[in-house]
Structure formats: C-alpha cells, structure tokens
Amino acid sequence: MRPSLLHSLRHFAFYASGFLVGSALFCGAYMWSYQGTFPGIIVALALPVALFYFALLAVIRWRRPVLIGRAVFVVCGIAVGLFPMLGLSPIYMWRLPFALMLFAVHIMILAVIVFLNYFATRWMKATHAA
Predict the structure, then answer these.
(1) What residue numbers bound the domain in which 124 lies?
(2) More confident residue, 111 or 9
(3) Which residues touch 1 (CB under 8 Å, ≥6 apart)?
(4) Among candidates 44, 70, 43, 45, which has minimal Cα distance to 57?
(5) Contact of 42 with 97, CB cutoff 8 Å
(6) 3-class secondary structure, 87
(7) Which of 21, 42, 102, 128 is the most exposed, having the fewest neighbouring CB atoms within 10 Å of its CB?
C-alpha cells in the first residue's frame, strides 16, 4: 500500500520538527562558542539541502515503505540540522570535488541512520512477538 498525501505531509512535519531541533542545537552551540553570534545565514543556506534530503527520503519511503518510518524522518531531520556543526556545511557552497565528498558523507550518515532504525525496528518486533 502506497502512502497517501496526508502521510507525506505528516512525514514532512516529522522531518521539519527534527530539522528544527537539530538547527536549534546547532544554533545554541554556535552562539555559545562565538559569544552570542547567531548563525541564521548558515541555517538559511542549509534549507535547500534539507529539502533535498527530505525528497530523497520520501522517494525511498514511497519505493520501500519498510525501510523508512517516522523515527527515520525525525532522526534524519536532526542529523541534517546538525550537519553544519559537524563541519558539513551546505554542499553547494564548495567546489565540485569538495561538494561531492560532502554529499557522499551526508548520504553515508543518513544511510547508517536508516539501516540502524530498520534493524532496531525488526529486533523490537521480533522480541515482542515471542
């Protein structure tokens, strides 16, 4: 059964809330480190990257609904919000070789989150089914 538009909007809300939490944590750490300077431009530049990763997760959810659940959208949103804190700034600001390297790192981090959630979900279902 394919997800409907309402499910997609709910998943976007989960992803957006995760991104807001991750961005708030990043902003707090940035302001604490740099004497109250607010990094609004970094968060604004990260929005297109965050939307791209949401679209990527939505396509994977549409193709393989078993892999992507609500928790993945929240945790991936938090991770994307924290990417600038890890030094993984918005990728389109760099030259192509650096952007490709950062894109590969982003995808690897998100893939680890997706698969950890998938296997944790399977393990929880297996332990509670017995």
Answers:
(1) 5-129
(2) 111
(3) 65
(4) 70
(5) no
(6) coil
(7) 128
